[in-house]
Amino acid sequence: MLTLLGVAMLLCACSDRAGSGKTSLRVHAFYYPWWGTPETDGEYRHWNHEIMGDVDRPHRYRGGDDIGADFFPADGCYSSNDSVTVDRHMRQMSDAGVGVVTVSWWGRDTFEDRAVKGILNAAERYDLKVNFHLEPYAGRTVMSIRKDIAYLHEAYGRHAALYRDSGDRHLPLFYVYDSYKIDIAQWRRLLGRKGNLTIRGTDLDARIIGLWVEQADTLFLERAGFDGAYTYFASDAFSYGSVPDNWRTMARWAEAHDMLFVPCVGPGYADLRVRPWNRGNQRSRDGGAYFDRMFAAALEIDPDVIGLTSFNEWHEGTQIEPAQPYRTDAFTYQDYQPRDPEYYLERTRFWVDRLMGKPTPSDDRPLSSFVSRLKQSKTHLAVGARLRVREQPHERFTAGGPRALIDGVLGTSNYRDGSWVGVRGSDLAAVVQFPKPTQVRSVTVRFLENSDAWIVSPDDVQIGLAQDGLPIELYARANDSAVFEGREGIGIRTVTIHPMIDDVRIVTVSARKRSADKGQDSRLTWLFIDEVVVE
Fold first, then answer.
1. CA 286 from centroid of its chain's CA atoms
2. Pairing verdict, β 98-105 and 129-134
3. Backbone angles phi, psi at 111, to 5 degrees
4. Which CATH number fits domain 4-16+365-534: 2.60.40.10, 2.10.110.10, 2.60.120.260, 1.10.645.10?
5. What is the mean pLDDT of the chain?
6. Which of 322, 321, 213, 340 lies closest to 264 in space, CA to CA?
7. CA-wise closest residue to 506 among 466, 463, 474, 533
8. Which of 4, 76, 98, 413 sits at a 20 to 30 Å CA gap from 257?
9. Contact partners, residue 417, CB within 8 Å, separation at least 6
10. What is the reported pLDDT for 405?
C-alpha cells in the first residue's frame, strides 16, 4: 500500500496535464489586441477604460492597479504589441486546444491592426490559425467592408497562419459584429452574386458570418447573403442567440439553409466596472459550472465550429486568460478562487478533448446522456484544483484524463458511460492541492464495482489532509465502513469522511485494490474511480 508520504511525493513526481497538446480548428477564440501600456505604447490603452453610458458620475480608470475590469490579470496590465505577451497568449491558447484566434479588428492602420503581424507570427509558432472579427468602427459601410477585406487579403493573405476553410477554394472567414446595423439591400451589394460590390467568385471571396441576435434574424441572415451565423454573447439570455436551449433549433435552420452555425460559449459575464447599470446581464461563473453548461450544450449539437467568448475581453469579464486575486484600497477584484488562475484554460482543454473525441462518452452512450448528468452535477471545492496521480488511466478508460477525478461529473453504474477512470493491475494514489487554504467539511471518494467486468472496489482507502505548511495527517482509514449502492456484484461504493478542518491545502487519497476473487487474475482486475468530492 502506498503510504501517505509516498502520496505526498506525487506533488513533484507526477503530472495530470490533460490532452495531447493538439489543437482543434473547430474552436475559435475571440481575441482582443487593444491593450497598451506606457512602457511599450507610451500610454495605457483600454486598461484605462471609461465608465460607459449615461451615468451620474463619469469616470476613467487610471490603468496600473485601477483598471476597467471586474477581474485582474494574473500578469498585470500588458501590451498587445509586446512580443513576450503575445507569445504567451498563443502558447496558452494552443495548450488549451484552441485552434483559431479570432482577432478583434477595427480598421486599417488602427492600434489593433498594427498588432496583427505579431499575432500571426506568434500563432504560426504554435500551429494556430488566425481570422478576423470585423468590428463596427465609425462610418462602417459595405463599401468600407469590401475595402477592409481587400486590405486584409493583401496585407496578410499570404501568411501561413491565416485561417482558411477546408472547402475546395480554401476561403478565409470573417465574423461581422453588429452586422444587423447594415440593412439587407446594402449587404446584397456585397454578398449577392449580382451585387455591384460583390465579392462572390472574386479573389476577395470569403465566408462571411453574421451575428444572430433575435429569433427573427433568420430572414435577415438569409436574404443578406451571409454564409453563416454566430451568437457571440457570453451572457445566457442576453439575446435569443445566447440561450443554449435555442441552439439546436438554430443549428437545424442553418443546416437547412446551407449555412454555418457557430454557437459561442463563455465562462460568465461581469462588466459592472464599465457598465454599472448592467446588473441584469451579470452571470456568475459558479465555480466553473456556467462554462461547463455552455460548452456541454454546444457539444450536444455537434457544430462545425464553436466560438469561445473570450480569451481576453477583460471589460466584460468573459476572459479565460489567467486572473489573480487583487485588491486596492478602493476596490477588490473578482477572481477564480478556489480555482487556480489557469483553471479556465485547463477547462477549455477538457472540453476541446471531448470535441476531438479524446474521449467522448462511450459509443453505446450518447453525448446527450453525458450532458444530462453534467447538468445535474454539483460543482464542489476540488473542481479546478491542482491534481497529481501516481498511475495514469488505462487507455481504454481515461474519461478524458486524470482530471476526471475532479471534474464534477459523476458516473453511473455503467462502466462504459465515459466518466470512470480505470487502472489495471495496480493501486491508485491521488493528491488534490488547493490554490489557497480551504475549509473542508467532507471528502467523498466514489468507486465502481462490477464483478462481471472484473472491476473490484478497493480493499482499503486512506484519506489524508494537510493544512498550510504542515505534514499530511491521516484523518480516515476506511474499508468495511464504505457505503455500497446497487445490486449484488454491480454498484457504486463510496467512502466519506467529515473532518471539519479549516485552512486545508492538500487532500490525499490512496486506494489498494482488493484481492482478486476466486478464478480471477489480480493482474487483470480493474480499479475504477470517478470523483473525489470535496465540500
1. 14
2. parallel
3. -55, -45
4. 2.60.120.260
5. 87
6. 213
7. 466
8. 98
9. 361, 362, 365, 369, 370, 373, 411
10. 87
Q: How many CB atoms lie within 10 A of CB 204?
A: 20
Question: Which residue do the cell numbers 506606457 mark?
Answer: 38
Task: Answer yes or no: are the C-beta atoms of 427 and 3 closer than 8 Å.
Answer: no
pLDDT band at 424 (very low <50, low <70, confident <90, very high): confident
Q: How far apart are CA 72 and CA 75, in angstroms?
A: 9
Collapsed DSSP state (helix, strand, coil) of residue 323: strand
What is the rounded CA–CA span in Å between residue 80 and residue 43? 12
Q: Is 330 left (phi over 0), alpha (psi -120 to 50) or beta?
A: alpha
Q: How far is the C-alpha of 350 from the C-alpha of 473, rounded, in Å?
A: 32
What is the secondary structure of 163-201 as a DSSP string?
---SSTT---EEEETTGGGS-HHHHHHHHSTT-TT--TT
The CATH number assigned to the domain with range 24-353 reads 3.20.20.80
The tens digit of pLDDT for each residue in 333-369 reads 999 988 889 999 999 999 999 898 865 443 334 445 5
Whether the pTM exceeds 0.90: the reply is no
Provide CATH 2.60.120.260 ranges for the chain.
Answer: 4-16+365-534
Residues 152 and 145: their CA atoms lie apart, in Å, by 10
Question: Average pLDDT for residues 408-418, to the nearest whole number?
Answer: 77
- Confidence (pLDDT) at 102: 98
Question: Which residues does residue 455 pair with via DSSP β-bridges, in sequence order?
Answer: 450, 526
Instruction: Give the residue with greater pLDDT, 422 vs 97.
Output: 97
CATH 3.20.20.80 residue ranges of the chain are 24-353
How far apart, in whole angstroms, are the C-alpha atoms of residue 522 and residue 425?
6
Residue 286, CA distances (Å) to 338, 350, 531 in order: 11, 17, 19
Cell of 482: 464504505
Which three cell numbers mark 323?
486572473
Tell me which DSSP letter residue 283 carries.
Answer: B
Predicted pLDDT at 313: 98
Q: What is the dihedral of CA 499, 500, 504, 506, to 10 degrees?
A: 30
pLDDT tens column, 218-237: 999 999 999 999 999 999 99
AA letter at 239:
S
Question: 73-93 b/e with 16+ CB inside 10 Å = b?
Answer: bbeebbbbbbeebbbbbbebb
Torsion sign, CA atoms 410, 414, 417, 418: positive
Q: What is the pLDDT of residues 28-66, one digit of tens each?
A: 999 999 999 999 999 999 999 999 987 788 899 999 999
The pairing of beta strand 443-450 with beta strand 458-467: unpaired
Cell of 322: 489567467
Q: Look at residue 366 in the predicted model and tell me its pLDDT.
A: 46
Distance separating alpha carbons of residues 239 and 253, to the nearest angstrom? 17
| Average pLDDT of the residues in 439-449 | 88
DSSP secondary structure of 458-480: EEEEEEEEEETTS--EEEEEEST
- H or E element, residue 8: helix 4-13
3-state secondary structure of 417: coil
